[in-house]
UniProtKB/TrEMBL annotation:
It holds the Pfam family NTP_transferase. PANTHER family: GLUCOSE-1-PHOSPHATE CYTIDYLYLTRANSFERASE (PTHR47183:SF1), GLUCOSE-1-PHOSPHATE CYTIDYLYLTRANSFERASE-RELATED (PTHR47183). The keyword Transferase applies. One of its GO terms (biological process) is O antigen biosynthetic process. This is Glucose-1-phosphate cytidylyltransferase. The keyword Nucleotidyltransferase applies. Keywords: Nucleotidyltransferase, Plasmid, Transferase. SUPFAM superfamilies: Nucleotide-diphospho-sugar transferases. Residues 2-203 form the Nucleotidyl transferase domain.
């Protein structure tokens, strides 16, 4: 099975970083968040990826073309103009990198990579969110439902402390940090899709989250896989710091690999 990763947006809310690099290459623990997402899929046995590039996509292509060299010990023979990789440390990934256009919407990006997906069920997610999700369980759930699409529903992480008010309404009876269970249920990405979903996308200007998903709902073809564990996107600099702190302290819940 293949996993499609949408990695072409501008990432404007993270402009402190995305002015110089695409959002999927913003690093958490010296590794791009794109790498973290792919490791999550690898933990469930998925090692074939189709990456939808757009804004500064050439930098994502360069990252993967230089990946083996960057992560290996080298012998450079200048007299023979050759390079030997002595110690290879790299993932068993097959990565197809597709230029899906600078301003193409999410649905349009998915439509553009259809030729690389064949006629089999595939996964799809965004290039800026991580979770301790069991992808295999989501796929099994999708197959059991028999629908065209399954979306992962997650609780939006709370950003502020929660106040419990006294009966009078003008005193605080208790205070606690807001937990993940306090937030609304939202689209957490990590879709499982049938190739027929592509027929619901008419062109580059289609947002996958709008017309295609609404159509799936109307036709009773969208299942919901509930993930009650950790989920966090990297929408702002604050989000990046949250993820960075978890990684540096060795408590990153999405690290499902050894």
């Amino acid at each position: 099975m293949k996993a499609v990763i949408l990695a072409g947006g501008y990432g404007t809310r993270l402009s402190e970083e995305t002015g110089t690099i695409p959002k999927p290459l913003v690093e958490i623990g010296n590794r791009p968040i794109l790498w973290h997402i792919m490791k999550i899929y690898e933990a469930s046995g998925i090692t074939e990826f189709v990456v939808c590039c757009g804004y500064k996509g050439h930098m994502i292509k360069r990252y993967f073309t230089e990946y083996a060299l960057t992560n290996a010990d080298l012998t450079v023979d200048l007299s023979q103009n050759s390079i030997t990789l002595n110690r290879r440390v790299s993932e068993p990934w097959q990565v197809t990198l597709v230029d899906t256009g600078q301003d193409t919407m999410t649905g349009g990006r998915l439509k553009r990579v259809g030729q690389y997906l064949g006629d089999e069920t595939f996964c799809m997610t965004y290039g800026d969110g991580v979770a301790n999700i069991d992808i295999r369980a989501a796929i099994t759930f999708h197959n059991e439902q028999g629908t065209e699409a399954t979306v992962t529903a997650v609780q939006q992480p709370g950003r502020f402390g929660a106040l419990n008010l006294a009966p009078s309404g003008n005193r605080v009876s208790s205070f606690r940090e807001k937990s993940i269970l306090d937030g609304p249920v939202i689209n957490g990405g990590f879709f499982v899709l049938e190739p027929t979903v592509l027929n619901r996308i008419s062109g580059d200007d289609i947002m996958f989250e709008e017309e295609p998903l609404r159509g799936l709902v109307q036709d009773d073809q969208l299942s919901v896989y509930r993930h009650d564990g950790f989920w966090q996107n990297m929408d702002t600099l604050r989000d990046k710091h949250v993820l960075q702190d978890l990684w540096q302290t060795g408590t990153a819940p999405w690290r499902l690999w050894a």
